[in-house]
Design brief:
Elements: E1 16-20, E2 27-28, E3 31-32, H1 36-50, E4 54-58, H2 74-84, H3 99-106, E5 113-115, H4 130-137, E6 142-145, H5 156-160, E7 167-169, H6 171-185, E8 191-195, H7 204-210, E9 216-219, H8 224-230, E10 234-235, H9 245-258, E11 261-263, E12 267-271, E13 281-284, E14 287-288, E15 293-297, H10 299-309, E16 314-318, H11 331-341, E17 346-349, H12 352-360, E18 369-370, H13 374-381, H14 387-390
Parallel strand pairs: 1-4, 1-6, 4-5, 6-7, 8-9, 8-16, 9-11, 10-14, 16-17, 17-18
Antiparallel strand pairs: 2-3, 12-13, 12-15
């Protein structure tokens, strides 16, 4: 992938720095639930503070269409202050570019940390409005993007401001780009990819791109039933995208042509309803009875997938194997998670559900790299350019 400037290249010492972070975390009753994304930003923030920088941080939170009390950044500022063990300046304002916000930033002491109000309180953010980008750029002398989860968006705080200030990638964004980009360029082999989730349509561009890179691709989750039905299998009431049947057959043919092993499930755990305690049965993947639907990979598939991963030197996993949120349909996802966590391969997990699964199972610390960006991860793996990363370095450092 193209090279990009990092903190190693940036003379940020003693400067006022605008940092785009990804603090889009769950907040309930004024308390941050999962602070993983905040913690991921700490290496960059601490490094900047050690270099005597004054920090102005910006992030979105949720999808508000304007100022809303339940989408304000106050709880995030409180949690960040606890983690940094220092004051984080924050003041509720109408938005990150408002006159109130500008006045609050203008009196920030040297060496302080200020968190701006939710960037999405301002409709100009998503429009990548030049006027808002200019206001944000006025808060600092340089810009650091450490929000991989938002790097695929051409917004004022990601792409717009990077074209107005000297800029670079923070440590989190740098690692994401290098690890995920490295999978596409020179993975250690054998390179095995595990894909799951509900819809094959969400993963078609990724599969097409990885067919030219991976040695084997394992497909689980509900998306597998589109492939099974395309081959003439009986899938009962399982989720299928009928408009993608031809595409599924084309992907299978392309895999064969390129010598890539495309492994589909052989059996599935089926039930009539998605609920704890329901009666379940294991059926061949192409013989699901009417009235039942496949909700997890079966034991034979689980074993076959494990064996396909045993000798892998690189493993990429994106998407659960079943409805993992509802036992007993979590068994397949759990088995694959435990196997990946115990592998000696370089292991990379991307996608919100996969990350949630390994985190909930207490296996996150056994994974080589867990990506913080769902949509950004997929777009990068598709080989697409991320606007927030591509804009870095547009203005030279002095």
């Amino acid at each position: 992938m193209p090279d990009f400037p990092t903190l190693d290249d940036a003379p940020v010492d003693g400067r006022r720095v605008l940092v785009r972070v990804d603090f889009n975390v769950p907040v309930k009753d004024g308390v941050v639930g999962d602070d993983t994304r905040i913690r991921k930003s700490l290496p960059t923030l601490r490094e900047l503070l050690q270099r005597n920088a004054t920090l102005v941080l910006c992030s979105h939170l949720g999808r508000p269409k304007g100022p809303q009390d339940d989408a304000r950044m106050g709880p995030v500022a409180e949690r960040l202050a606890e983690l940094l063990e220092r004051e984080v300046r924050y003041q509720p304002t109408p938005g990150p570019g408002s006159e109130e916000q500008q006045a609050f930033v203008s009196i920030a002491p040297a060496g302080s940390v200020t968190l701006l109000e939710n960037t999405r309180f301002d409709p100009r953010e998503k429009a990548n409005d030049a006027a808002l980008a200019q206001v944000l750029a006025g808060y600092a002398e340089c810009y650091v993007n450490d929000a991989f989860g938002a790097a695929h968006r051409a917004h004022a705080s990601t792409e717009g401001v990077a074209r107005l200030l000297p800029s670079c990638a923070g440590r989190l964004l740098e690692r994401e780009l290098r690890v995920l980009g490295g999978l596409l360029e020179a993975p250690e082999r054998p390179f095995a990819v595990v894909l799951g989730g509900a819809k094959v349509s969400d993963k078609i561009p990724v599969i097409e791109r990885l067919l030219g890179v991976a040695d084997r691709i394992l497909i689980g989750g509900a998306m597998a039933f589109t492939f099974v039905k395309a081959r003439g299998g009986e899938v009962g009431g399982s989720l299928v995208e009928d408009d993608k049947l031809d595409m599924a057959n084309e992907l299978v043919a392309a895999a064969e042509e390129q010598g890539v092993t495309l492994l589909l499930p052989s059996d599935a755990v089926c039930a009539r309803d998605i609920a704890e305690g329901v009666d379940t049965a294991v059926h061949p993947i192409d013989a699901v009875p009417e009235g039942e639907r496949g909700l997890d990979i079966g034991p034979a598939t689980t074993q076959a997938f494990r064996e396909a991963l045993d000798d892998a030197a690189t493993i990429l996993w994106n998407g659960p194997m079943g409805v993992f949120e509802v036992p007993p349909f979590d068994a397949g996802t759990r088995a694959i998670a435990e196997h990946v966590a115990g592998s000696r391969a370089l292991t990379v997990i991307g996608g919100g559900d996969s990350v949630a699964a390994v985190t909930g199972m207490g296996l996150a610390d056994k994974i080589g790299h867990i990506s913080t960006g769902g949509g950004a991860s997929l777009e990068l793996l598709e080989g697409r350019t991320l606007p927030g990363a591509a804009a870095l370095g547009s203005v030279p450092w002095q």
